[in-house]
Amino acid sequence: MAAYEELPDMDSEEFKRWQSLLEQRTGVWLAENRKSFLLTNLAQRMRERGFESYQSYFDSLDNGVGSALEWASLVDLLTVHETRFFRDMASMDLVRNHIQKLINKAVNQQQEGPVNAQVWSVGCSTGEEVYSLAMLASDVDTSALQKQGRNFYFGLTGVDISFPALAQAREAIYHQRKLYSVPPEMLDTYFDSLADGYYQVRNQLRHRTCFVQANVKELESSPKQLYDVIYCQNVLIYFQNERREKIVEQFISRLSPGGLLVLGPGELNNVSHPLIEKVSTKHCQAYLRAGG
Ligand SMILES: C[S@@+](CC[C@H](N)C(=O)[O-])C[C@H]1O[C@@H](n2cnc3c(N)ncnc32)[C@H](O)[C@@H]1O
User: Fold this and answer.
1) Domain span(s) for CATH 1.10.155.10 in the chain
2) Of 23, 25, 194, 261, which residue has the fewest beta carbons closer than 10 angstroms?
3) In whole angstroms, what is the distance from residue 2 CA to residue 24 CA?
4) 88 CB under 6 A from ligand 1?
5) Alpha-carbon torsion, ordered 127, 135, 115, 231, to 10 deg
6) CA contacts within 13 A on the Cβ side of 269
7) Is 157 touching ligand 1 by the criterion CB < 6 Å?
8) Distances in Å between the alpha carbon of 222 and those of 62, 68, 214, 216, 250?
9) pLDDT category, 8, cuts 50, 70, 90?
10) Could you report the per-residue pLDDT of 47-85, keeping only the tens digit for each?
11) Distance separating alpha carbons of residues 87 and 218, to the nearest angstrom
12) What is the CATH number of domain 89-289?
């Protein structure tokens, strides 16, 4: 196929087939007004793979040894990966304060042993969200804890459906154009300068992180680990409401007692669940699990 212009238009039946394939496999719902986004990206992939009709490409995704690999490449094209460091500062502040409270509480109660905080970033894209949260967790005040001879450990797990996005996240190399929202002192402390305007997150932070490929739509069947903070922004906005509710229920079941769930402003409004209580803040949407 020589050029995208040569691809025929897609009729509404065919569009619905693609729409439901993507929804069933990822949860992402392509509204009718995103048809041109679908066509542009299908054209790119079909050209690369030598397919001349939507139907033959569609069929190829459902059979044959390579179909899973092909699907992984297509999903990367059909999902939006836009992100940036410290994207939603009000929500990030809430996380920092929550972690500080965990430490202060352990100090006041003079519990024994280290304090441990586990953070889960769902739909982490290329890693900026995870490293922003890691910088904030590194910056909490642990002096009182240290006076008691105790350590603070934290870990962050980023999950995403896109393998290429996760590969970038693990590499942790960003051009300076992407670092404008990182405060200069954090850039000095947590990044190494490489050649040609690139920076890499230092190992002291990278060693706290782990990036895992997973589909949030399939959380029911994945192991249940508990997190002190679950952070999910700009992911569920692409899903239909009923799906969002089921996924948020899964998040709640993975919150430690007293854990904090932070959602993006439009992710799912007014979550109501017996185990959680809304945090009263003006600028973000967050919930605390009972029992902390
Ligand atoms: C717009 S980015 C948001 C990145 C980051 N959370 C932020 O707010 O800056 C959405 C991410 O969700 C991921 N995503 C979409 N559907 C997913 C699914 N079913 N399971 C896991 N990740 C998914 C995409 O691959 C993409 O990287």
Assistant:
1) 4-78
2) 194
3) 31
4) no
5) -40
6) 2
7) no
8) 23, 19, 9, 9, 10
9) confident
10) 999 998 999 999 999 877 779 889 999 999 999 999 999
11) 26
12) 3.40.50.150
Quote the CA–CA distance of 89 and 35 in Å, as a whole number.
33
The residue nearest atom 17 of ligand 1, judged by CA position, is 161
Q: Which residue's alpha carbon is at the smallest distance from atom 10 of ligand 1?
A: 235
CA of residue 81 to ligand 1 center, whole Å: 6
CA of 165 to the centre of ligand 1 (A): 9
CATH 3.40.50.150 residue spans of the chain: 89-289
Q: 34 burial class (0-12, 13-18, 19+ CB within 10 angstroms)?
A: middle
Class of the CATH-defined domain 4-78: mainly alpha
Give the nearest ligand 1 atom to 27 CA: 19
CA of 216 to the centre of ligand 1 (A): 9
